[in-house]
Amino acid sequence: MISSSEYGSHSWELLVTVDHQHEEVQKEFLLRVTGDLHIGGVMLKLVEQIKISQDWSDYALWWEQKKCWLLKTHWTLDKCGVQADAKLFFTTQHKMLRLRLPNMKTVRLKVSFSSVVFKAVSDICKILNIRRPEELSLLKQSEDALKKKKKKDKNSKEPVTEDILNLCNSPVSSGLSGSPGLYSKTMTPIYDPISGTPASSTVTWFSDSPLTEQNCSILAFSHPNCSPETLAEMYQPRTLADKAKLNAGWLDSSRSLMEQGILEDDQLLLRFKYYTFFDLNPKYDAVRINQIYEQARWAILLEEIDCTEEEMLIFAALQAYHVNELSLSSEAEDFTCESEVDEVEAALSNLEVTLEGGNTSNALEDITDIPKLADNLRLVRPRKLSLKAIKPYWFVFKDTSVSYFKNKESAQGEPIEKLNLKGCEVVPDVNVAAKKFGIKLLIPVADGMNEVYLRCENENQYARWMAACVLASKGKTMADSSYHPEVHKILSFLKMKNWAMSPQAVSDPESINMKPECFVSLRYTKKYKSKQLASRILEAHQNVCQMPLVEAKLRFIQAWQSLPEFGLSYYIVRFKGSKKDDMLGVSYNRLIRIDIATGDPITTWRFSNMKQWNVNWEIRQVAIEFDQNVSIAFTCLSADCKIIHEYIGGYIFLSTRSKDQNETLDEDLFHKLTGGQE
């Protein structure tokens, strides 16, 4: 036996508030504990004192002052640093969360508030049947968007009721890991490859999943567009600074929702954060493809990404008549694809041809022979005080450089100039209707970017030279296996833009039930009358009207990827040694310093040339070292520097993925590259 004085000197009282629904039972409990009592022991004492018979397995202790979970149940109170002044909260780890998906639909489901966001997103994607969850993350809505929403709600005469898809009975979101939902690790096809409808047999395999066939169609199919009035009420960025605000709210993937101030039933945006869509496959990715398509569609409608009038009409044609009409028609659901060859069979036949010595599409080229391009092009150099100088020259493209000569005969001698395109910015300057096929090159030089335009004669010449320039900017030559697919991709996009057709091919816009204002951004709604828009969209539609549904979505995504601004996330930064703010564009393969006033690129740094990067957490400064003794440092003004640090590490992590990984992710490597040492 020990005396009461000795007992008092070693023990102390700990206040714990219990989050339970029983009104007749008190919520605050005083526990007498000692510093060497482990967290598991505290929870056991607490449950014994509560005297409520229920399942407490999802409960854990949350330390309010320190904003952290006490999840290591074998740690003692002393080791955790918990003392008598601590306020602990005994609450569930899984709570309800509202998520706004890229298609603007809201789902409500249970999510782990104690797991790091990377793990929570992975669990969410299992419920929603989205493969490659590492490409997505959670985003807090920008303050400007929230202000506009509050203003809209205030002006609305009727109470706003949001249509929410409730998935709260999900076994994954309830903290159980037994069911994969409609997510098959064995890669069994779970959708019709053309229509994207769920295969009914697989729905019965996973009958405990909240994703019924009806819910699946909500996620995998596009739905009628919103009205122009609704579009006008949504937040649209007007400047680069506005675009920077859109990217300020990304959550830290290395910390939990609760640690970042997210409360139960809050609303967050689930978005594709990293623009590297790996292994897109219509067989397994109906939901994923549709959500990427929807994110692209809304980015274009709300002008979060710039595109030309010609491109806007192509996007309108693809979504207006194609995706919209096919999604709503019953014909789409009855599509079958008899010509589709089994992947394994195709691989075996290809291997058979290779062994017999035949040529296949994947046959290796002679790696010692690097192809080159040589042709007559026109060179345009912008001049500040005079008109642009346009002159024809003989151009030769070899390796990653382009040289130009006075004429073909002088090509054996020294070139007038040799331009090294490695690390340059390549921007299309095309107007198919006007037969303008230009390539804008922004080549890094000591004091910024050297601007050069190449003018091609026709589509084929443009596609070959544009593909060569794009590859050279990444440090690749035309010998690379991606050259010919790049040429094909450019040509197919140009074909969609080519609206030359017979007048009778265009239907009468008045005879079609269509609101063209729903398919273009407000800028074009103000510029053209409804009839004009309908007529022009119908013209553009002639080039895409034969596509099945999934191909139309994939073409839309491909066209989005072809835009110069695709994949750029903007942040306002102050570079070390600079007296003014700049814009930093973060892409999947490079960082771009942009003049915040004009929007012109100043310098580009590629991840492939990066030696190392680190963050000084005290002054919140990101420092990066590149090859050739180039180093930069900047502080981020529009967001926490951790967001940019995570972007860089995340893109490097995603570049390590390969198809033979069987979809397993090295989560530790992700956190090493993105976590930081705060």
From TrEMBL:
<dbReference type="InterPro" id="IPR019747">
    <property type="entry name" value="FERM_CS"/>
</dbReference>
<keyword id="KW-0965">Cell junction</keyword>
<dbReference type="GO" id="GO:0007229">
    <property type="term" value="P:integrin-mediated signaling pathway"/>
</dbReference>
<dbReference type="InterPro" id="IPR037837">
    <property type="entry name" value="PH_Kindlin/fermitin"/>
</dbReference>
<dbReference type="GO" id="GO:0005925">
    <property type="term" value="C:focal adhesion"/>
</dbReference>
<keyword id="KW-0966">Cell projection</keyword>
<dbReference type="InterPro" id="IPR001849">
    <property type="entry name" value="PH_domain"/>
</dbReference>
<dbReference type="GO" id="GO:0005178">
    <property type="term" value="F:integrin binding"/>
</dbReference>
<dbReference type="Pfam" id="PF18124">
    <property type="entry name" value="Kindlin_2_N"/>
</dbReference>
<comment type="similarity">
    <text>Belongs to the kindlin family.</text>
</comment>
<dbReference type="InterPro" id="IPR035963">
    <property type="entry name" value="FERM_2"/>
</dbReference>
<dbReference type="InterPro" id="IPR011993">
    <property type="entry name" value="PH-like_dom_sf"/>
</dbReference>
<dbReference type="InterPro" id="IPR037843">
    <property type="entry name" value="Kindlin/fermitin"/>
</dbReference>
<dbReference type="GO" id="GO:0042995">
    <property type="term" value="C:cell projection"/>
</dbReference>
<dbReference type="InterPro" id="IPR040790">
    <property type="entry name" value="Kindlin_2_N"/>
</dbReference>
<dbReference type="Pfam" id="PF00373">
    <property type="entry name" value="FERM_M"/>
</dbReference>
<dbReference type="GO" id="GO:0007160">
    <property type="term" value="P:cell-matrix adhesion"/>
</dbReference>
<keyword id="KW-0130">Cell adhesion</keyword>
<feature type="domain" description="PH">
    <location>
        <begin position="378"/>
        <end position="474"/>
    </location>
</feature>
<dbReference type="InterPro" id="IPR019749">
    <property type="entry name" value="Band_41_domain"/>
</dbReference>
<protein>
    <recommendedName>
        <fullName>PH domain-containing protein</fullName>
    </recommendedName>
</protein>
<dbReference type="InterPro" id="IPR019748">
    <property type="entry name" value="FERM_central"/>
</dbReference>
